[in-house]
């Protein structure tokens, strides 16, 4: 049976089944082997050097990046005709996740393989790929991406860097300063964005040795200290015309489409970092004794562990669900088509909303995890000799780069409403149905003998609630809704939690018959623990959206609907938490 191809954001208005999602339990033996290779490389080679790397010994970073090239870890997304492996997005995300415990090194890796390499793969000419791609995917050369400027971060199109064609027509002369450029200190090739004739936003491939390329000093950062972060200064930099990437004036397509993948890959990386931090926290809790007992035996610590496990489970489920969505769509594209990469990019762009979700949600899960891990370490969590201190500092940047979480939150409902206005999603019709449901008393009976009956019922109610509050917001503000940022962020929070709940729920439902009885019970517990928290988050966001939008009788009606649609019977919650905690504490790691 042919697999259904879902549209981006369609999950909010339709029922998705367990057979529609890809889960970590679906990994092939080949994917597991690649993951194992990556894990062993990080454990045996990178982690022993991590302190030196954090002291900015970039020679070690370069050395390990070249080893990544030897292991094939830099060529996962590259086409086979240029020596690449051309593997699917699930594999690419899995490697990003397994590299993540390598701290600062993982930042260098992610920048090189993602935003550093993908512009060339997706938009480069044959001549450009012939010249540069093999060097990049073998680790002979390292790559960086130059978009941000001192005065333009989230507003990428506000860049001031310029590109002017030389009188002889052989070069573009680039001038400007790029800020916060990862890998700048050792990169050989930069993807640089500048405005041709101060107007047309365009990308260029710039070699480090080109005349006019200068670097600022290393930034003194709070975290990820072992990654190189410098300004790249273009001082009458001469770039051959054949190094123009893509089309003049179409640089925004490259910037934003590459960021979709970057956001998604970041979500995978922070999920891997969360698993690693959790394991370190549990190990310490098992060693540390207070009042004559291991602190891991106390309920206060157990609850922290259970909540971390459940949130990581949801994060992981969302990441690989999106990988499956993208891979299914890419699989329908004819690889021999002349415009293959154009269609490939459209396949990814279809899920731009989900890419933002899987950047925001996992990065905030990591923030919660490292905060709790520091708390478990207590005073030692503040001491550099212990790993929790580095986790805490390194985590913070993830909510800023690849588009701040605020920008991504604004994009989620913004893109959704644009698609609705273009008729790509029947949002208005579904919102009207949701209002009818709000006005109609419910006497539904839930059959608790069906697995996840309570969660499924609650999930459907949350989708209805989203449509009610989003519909009310669209009706009141119409085309001015884009300026109501507080409201858009509240709507995004609802959409994010719905995707996370559904991802965790469908993963568990798909696998409870395929895993051991013990593992099935753990999955059920993770779904319950996470759903309880997520529903509370939705309720708060929905109330904010209601107060931001309505007043009088309409407000009272929507608030009543929020109370009704966010009811969740979490009977057995304490037992579920203790089950997750006990298993994770015994295993001293993430248990799924």
TrEMBL record:
Keywords for this entry? FAD, Flavoprotein, Oxidoreductase
Q: Where do the Acyl-CoA dehydrogenase/oxidase N-terminal domain residues begin and end?
A: 28-140
Q: Which GO terms describe its molecular function?
A: acyl-CoA dehydrogenase activity; flavin adenine dinucleotide binding
Q: Taking every annotated instance into account, which residue ranges of this chain make up the domain Acyl-CoA dehydrogenase-like C-terminal?
A: 461-564
Highest taxon of the lineage = Bacteria
Q: Which Gene3D superfamilies match?
A: Acyl-CoA dehydrogenase/oxidase, N-terminal domain, Butyryl-CoA Dehydrogenase, subunit A, domain 2, Butyryl-CoA Dehydrogenase, subunit A, domain 3
Q: Does the keyword Lyase apply?
A: no
Entry-linked InterPro entries: Acyl-CoA-dh-like_C, Acyl-CoA_DH_CS, Acyl-CoA_Oxase/DH_mid-dom, Acyl-CoA_Oxase/DH_mid-dom_sf, AcylCo_DH-like_C, AcylCo_DH/oxidase_C, AcylCoA_DH/ox_N, AcylCoA_DH/ox_N_sf
Q: Which cofactor does it need?
A: FAD
Catalysed reactions, semicolon-separated: a 2,3-saturated acyl-CoA + A = a 2,3-dehydroacyl-CoA + AH2
Q: Which residues cross the membrane?
A: none
EC number from the UniProt entry: 1.3.8.-
Residue stretches making up the Acyl-CoA dehydrogenase/oxidase C-terminal domain: 249-412
Acyl-CoA oxidase/dehydrogenase middle domain location is 144-237
Pfam annotation, one family: Acyl-CoA-dh_C
Q: Which family does it belong to?
A: Belongs to the acyl-CoA dehydrogenase family.
Tell me which PANTHER family the record gives.
ACYL-COA DEHYDROGENASE, ISOVALERYL-COA DEHYDROGENASE, MITOCHONDRIAL-RELATED
Protein name (record):
Acyl-CoA dehydrogenase
Which organism is this protein's natural source?
Deferribacter desulfuricans (strain DSM 14783 / JCM 11476 / NBRC 101012 / SSM1)
């Amino acid at each position: 049976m042919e697999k259904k191809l879902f549209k981006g954001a369609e999950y909010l208005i339709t029922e998705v089944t367990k057979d529609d999602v890809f889960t970590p339990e679906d990994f092939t033996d080949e994917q597991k082997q690649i993951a194992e290779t990556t894990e062993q490389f990080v454990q045996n080679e990178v982690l022993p050097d991590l302190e030196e790397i954090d002291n900015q010994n970039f020679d070690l970073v370069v050395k390990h990046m070249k080893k990544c090239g030897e292991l094939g870890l830099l060529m996962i997304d590259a086409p086979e005709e240029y020596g690449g492996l051309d593997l699917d997005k699930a594999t690419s995300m899995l490697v990003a996740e397994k590299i993540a415990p390598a701290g600062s090194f993982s930042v260098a890796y992610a920048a090189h393989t993602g935003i550093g390499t993908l512009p060339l793969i997706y938009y480069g000419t044959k001549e450009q790929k012939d010249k540069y791609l093999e060097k990049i995917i073998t680790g002979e050369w390292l790559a960086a991406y130059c978009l941000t400027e001192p005065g333009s971060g989230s507003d990428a199109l506000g860049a001031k860097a310029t590109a002017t064609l030389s009188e002889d027509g052989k070069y573009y002369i680039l001038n400007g300063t790029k800020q916060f450029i990862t890998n700048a200190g050792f990169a050989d090739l930069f993807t640089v964005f500048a405005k041709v004739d101060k107007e047309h936003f365009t990308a260029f491939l710039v070699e480090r040795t080109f005349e006019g390329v200068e670097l600022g000093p290393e930034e003194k950062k709070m975290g990820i200290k072992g990654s190189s972060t410098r300004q790249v200064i273009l001082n009458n930099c001469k770039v051959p015309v054949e190094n123009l990437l893509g089309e003049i004036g179409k640089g925004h397509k490259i910037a934003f489409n590459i960021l979709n993948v970057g956001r998604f890959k970041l979500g995978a990386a922070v999920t891997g970092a969360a698993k690693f931090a959790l394991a370190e926290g549990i190990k310490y809790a098992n060693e540390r004794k207070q009042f004559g007992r291991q602190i891991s035996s106390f309920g206060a610590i157990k609850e922290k562990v259970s909540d971390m496990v459940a949130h990581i489970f949801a994060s992981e489920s969302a990441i690989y669900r999106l990988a499956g969505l993208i891979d299914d769509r890419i699989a329908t594209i004819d690889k021999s088509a002349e415009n293959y990469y154009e269609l490939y990019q459209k396949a990814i762009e279809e899920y731009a909303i989900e890419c933002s979700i899987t950047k925001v949600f996992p990065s905030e899960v990591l923030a919660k995890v490292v905060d709790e891990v520091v708390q478990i370490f207590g005073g030692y969590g503040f001491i550099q000799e212990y790993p929790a201190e580095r986790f805490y500092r390194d985590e913070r940047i993830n909510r800023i780069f690849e588009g701040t979480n605020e920008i991504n939150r604004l994009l989620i409902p913004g893109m959704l409403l644009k698609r609705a206005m273009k008729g790509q999603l029947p949002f208005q019709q579904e919102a009207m149905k949701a209002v009818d449901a709000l006005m109609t008393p419910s006497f539904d009976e839930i059959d608790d003998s069906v697995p996840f009956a309570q969660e499924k019922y609650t999930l459907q109610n949350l989708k209805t609630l989203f449509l009610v509050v989003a519909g009310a917001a669209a009706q009141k503000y119409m085309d001015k809704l884009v300026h109501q940022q507080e409201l858009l962020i509240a709507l995004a929070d609802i959409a994010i939690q719905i995707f996370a709940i559904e991802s965790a729920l469908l993963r568990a439902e798909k696998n409870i018959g395929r895993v051991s009885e013990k593992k099935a019970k753990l999955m059920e517990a993770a779904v319950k623990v996470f759903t309880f928290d997520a529903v509370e988050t939705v309720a708060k966001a929905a109330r904010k959206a209601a107060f931001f939008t309505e007043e009088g009788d309409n407000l009272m009606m929507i608030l009543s609907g929020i109370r009704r649609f966010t009811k969740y019977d979490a009977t057995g919650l304490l037992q579920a938490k203790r089950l997750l905690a006990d298993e994770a504490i015994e295993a001293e790691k993430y248990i799924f």
